[in-house]
Amino acid sequence: MNEPAIDAEAFWAFSLEVYAKPQVAELCIALQDECGFDVNLLLLGLWVAVTQRKALDAERIRELREAVAPLNDNLVQPLRRVRRWAKPSDPVIVTARYKLYGALKQVELNAERLVQAALVEALRPGLARVDEMPTPQAAARASLERYRQFLEAPDAAAVPLAQLIVRALS
């Protein structure tokens, strides 16, 4: 059986499509802000589940997080903080800040794309040792639950993770 190609452009296209689905963005951001999940790693778990029917284990999750930590720590997270700070709230300065906010959002999006490319590169060598599952949903559940356990996120995080799988894979 020929497995689908593992490439950054396919992952990016998948991410944009899934993130645009109702409630997916909100669930991802809540999991990021409240429990420390990396949205790109959540999306990667979903993508690998859909394209490969495979689930990431704790060791792969650790390796992937380490592979993108410099990009996240030095580029994405500082950009996110500045963008969120620049989000317009005062009606008097909305126009000027909105332009800045939009520009920062685009730069942050470009940085997220770099993270995704780095994740795909880090994933390739060990994909063969990733657990195969009977369905994409089962693979997604296994990956995201292992990620929750890896982060030592509260058990309550399992609920939005389950909702994310339903929304993203519908």
From TrEMBL:
Keyword annotations from UniProtKB, A to Z: Plasmid
What domain of life does the native source organism fall in? Bacteria
User: What Pfam families has UniProt attached to this entry?
Assistant: DUF2390
Write down what this protein is called. Answer: TIGR02444 family protein
Organism, per UniProt?
Sphingobium fuliginis (strain ATCC 27551)
Q: What is the lineage of its organism?
A: Bacteria, Pseudomonadati, Pseudomonadota, Alphaproteobacteria, Sphingomonadales
